[in-house]
Amino acid sequence: MASPLDDKTRSILKACVPALEAHGLAITAEMYRRLLVNPEIRDLFNMSHQADGAQPKALALAVLAYARNIDNLGALGGMVERIAEKHVGLNILPEHYPHVADALLGAIAHVLGEAATPEIMDAWGKAYWFLADILIGREGQIYAAHATAPGGWTGWRAFTVRGRTRESETVTSFELIPADGKPIMRHQPGQYLSFRLDIPGHGPQRRNYSISSAPGADAYRISVRRVRGGVVSEWLHDSMQDGTSLLVSAPAGDFTLADPTPTSVVLLSAGVGLTPMISMLGALTTAEQPTPIRYIHGTRSARTEAFGAYIRTLSAPGRVRGDVFYSRQAPAEDEPAAALTCHAGRITPAWLKTQIDGNATYYICGPDDFMRDMVAVLKEAGLAKEQVRYEFFGSADKEILVT
């Protein structure tokens, strides 16, 4: 267990908050510049988040939150858990942490110059290793759980594609089975898989994709939206066929159904954010104890609506009450009513305010701005923190704004 930080160290870190507010992004950008010189470390990262600046911004916000909450680190527990899960998905190991320490401390000294006194550098060294020890300990627990779970594994495991299905004009699903023919670990609905890929002409790539299949099958299914110019998504859509081999780490992530299942559930998503919701629907609609389910989803049009037929199958007998929003198309007049309502336009905060279920647990996934707006409405409505659960894609650079 990490030793608590002493009063002097915490006092210095709190005094650094103004400097972090002014120079935090410059520090993290310099840190990544130093860190990514090492090809072994560089290959651990999703480089698209470096290209668009999202990863340095995300880390700058996290470091600032760490300093601001140094006297109440319990407030950052959720963020620490999400980081640990992502690290496990990417197979981050204890031996990687010294490289990050050297890059971060070197960046602080470089950006702050003479202001980076020996006392400040000592305090940040202690602060880094305090947090690193917490993460290493938690990651060790997750690795151990994966190693001992039926069908579980650690490291990268070879999977092959058993089939692909076009879900919409932009989303394709891929069914993955283990190359060794052995069982797979039962995932929790809402978790994701991490992939180690080598894309011709682009080199090593790392990506996370939510599992869209229900737990308990002999395969995992991921459902990927084609992103124009996206190195990995375009390769998956254009080149991944039956028999293609992929390296995959065990299911990870803490965006999962609450245990025990709450009295009612609202699944709120936009775009490809529906993929973890489809896995949750599979689990909820086959459970022994029925749970009232509200499915609310926003997409551009019927052509981009993935899993539309599946949702209508569930809504027909009333197992799921659904609302689907088309931002660029009016709903078809002959759309079956049942328990599904189609709307023109986007899911707005004003509309959501009229639909609040104070007893439900909300699961939210989609673009950052969408989630920020939805979470804000639910918080304003007085829902407890544990009733509002959300999953951020990518580097989650805006996550700290809504925690």
UniProtKB/TrEMBL annotation:
SUPFAM superfamilies: Ferredoxin reductase-like, C-terminal NADP-linked domain, Globin-like, Riboflavin synthase domain-like
Domain Globin: 4-140
Catalytic activity: 2 nitric oxide + NADH + 2 O2 = 2 nitrate + NAD(+) + H(+); 2 nitric oxide + NADPH + 2 O2 = 2 nitrate + NADP(+) + H(+)
Superkingdom of the source species: Bacteria
Cofactor: heme b
UniProt keyword Iron present: yes
CDD domains: flavohem_like_fad_nad_binding (cd06184)
EC number(s) from the headed UniProt entry: 1.14.12.17
Keyword set includes NADP: yes
Physiological role: Is involved in NO detoxification in an aerobic process, termed nitric oxide dioxygenase (NOD) reaction that utilizes O(2) and NAD(P)H to convert NO to nitrate, which protects the bacterium from various noxious nitrogen compounds. Therefore, plays a central role in the inducible response to nitrosative stress.
Protein's recorded name: nitric oxide dioxygenase
Phylogenetic lineage: Bacteria, Pseudomonadati, Pseudomonadota, Alphaproteobacteria, Acetobacterales
